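Subject: sequence -> structure tokens, single chain

Hey, anyone have a minute? Need the predicted structure for the following. Not urgent.
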Amino acid sequence: MTDAHDHGHADHDHDEHEHHHHEGPHDYVAAIEGYRAEKDAFFKSAPGSPIPLEERDDFSGLPYYPVDVDLVFEGLNLAPYVGNEPTSFQIPTSDGRLRPARRAGTFTFEAGGAPRRLTAYELEGAHHDGSVFVPFLDETSGAETYGAGRYLDLEPDEDGSYAIDFNLAYHPSCVYAPQFSCPLTPAENRLPIRIEAGERLAEDTAH
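Reply:
Had a minute. Here:
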């Protein structure tokens, strides 16, 4: 059983792959594909892998959408949260618990032909060095991707701005093993469009 916030497992080498899109689309795609290969190797054999031991021999890699360079949004500012929900609240988890959290602010960007907004959170026990947790739901959730959402971990660039890169969207560990305690995505972070980037479910295992 683990109470560790789950969303850290996917970025064990986060700093090395964060903003390779500055190098150009080809280099960026290669960097994302390299990161995915590293993550697959981690999931297959590392002690901290969420893949159950009895399934690792048959594990051949996570399913992903193709890399989409148009689903990278750079230079975003974290605006103060001005919504109607309380700033400090309890975020529910996949195992029926509540975890203290704070609405750190909101990001606004344009996707699918209209402005979109996602709230960024800080979870109790996480390092508050400007990094924020952005879970989200979209029109693939519950069919092609996990019904409780996918995660993004964002760190500020040197100028204080952030980049939302949906190619780095990943599933919580509770997708693979129920003993993980994973935050559920608040309803305010549902995007009314399809985000066909990042991790997806295998086509025969829709949740």
